Amino acid sequence: MTTNSRRTPARPDMVYRFDGAAVWRTLAAEHQARIGALALELVAGWNVEERLIEDGDSLSPAVFRAAEAYDDVLLMDRLREAFVEAVPRETLEADDGGPRFPSATGAICRRCGCSGHDPCQPRCYWAEPDLCSACDDETDDGFNPHGCGPVPLERRDD
Ligand SMILES: [Zn+2]
Ligand SMILES: [Zn+2]
Questions:
Q1: CA 40 to CA 51: how far, in whole Å?
Q2: Ligand 1 centroid from CA 94, angstroms
Q3: Which pick of 21, 26, 107, 156 has the fewest CB atoms within 10 Å?
Q4: What is the pLDDT of residues 87-127, one digit of tens each?
Q5: Crossing angle, helix 29-55 and helix 61-69, to 10 degrees?
Q6: What gap in Å lies between CA 134 and CA 119, rounded to an integer?
Q7: Using alpha carbons only, what angle is made at residue 126 by residues 19 and 116, rounded to the nearest 5 degrees?
């Protein structure tokens, strides 16, 4: 018998967000320390990869060799392991099974999935955080007069 009713037959059609800062505050200090250190080291490794690409000729043979052999997959795996150990799986998904999108990548309309990289046509604007004007029932006209939408929380100038 299972009490896991997280997955339902209905296909989730809402875009949910994962608030990393909020989840971070719930983590034990030891998990914060491990995840934080691995995230920093992952970025340090990207710097190694960038140096190899941008000015590999200026690196000494030993540094060049180490940079060529460097592979960030190991650190990504360790970061994922640390995450899985610290963060309940349920945190990644909403009650109806929909995956949560990282909040740090910017607004995404929770109904239609549009974003600054993929606005509605005609272009929309943000009626609320994560709700675009094309999907907002309160909005009569969902067009963004600036033509660059969605843009943050701007109302149309009449
Ligand atoms: Zn929308
Ligand atoms: Zn939109």
A1: 17
A2: 19
A3: 21
A4: 999 899 998 889 999 999 899 999 999 998 888 888 888 88
A5: 120
A6: 10
A7: 75
Neighbours of ion ligand 1 (CB under 5 A): 109, 111-112, 114, 132, 134-135
- Burial code (b: 16+ CB inside 10 Å, e: under 16) for 82-119 equals bbeebbeeeeebbeeeeeebebeeebbbbbbebbeeeb
Distances (CA, A) of 23 to 20, 35, 77, 86: 5, 12, 20, 10
The model's pLDDT over 29-81, given as tens digits with 9 standing for 90+, comes to 999 999 999 999 999 999 999 999 999 999 999 999 999 999 999 999 999 99
Q: How far is the CA of 100 from the centre of ligand 2 (A)?
A: 18
Q: Which ligand places an atom closest to the C-alpha of 124?
A: 2
Tokens of 79: 């970061």
Could you tell me which residues come within 8 angstroms of residue 13 by beta carbon, excluding any fewer than 6 positions away?
98, 111
Query: Which residues keep their CB under 5 angstroms from ion ligand 2?
Result: 109, 114, 120, 124, 132, 134
Domain ranges of the chain: 16-97, 106-158
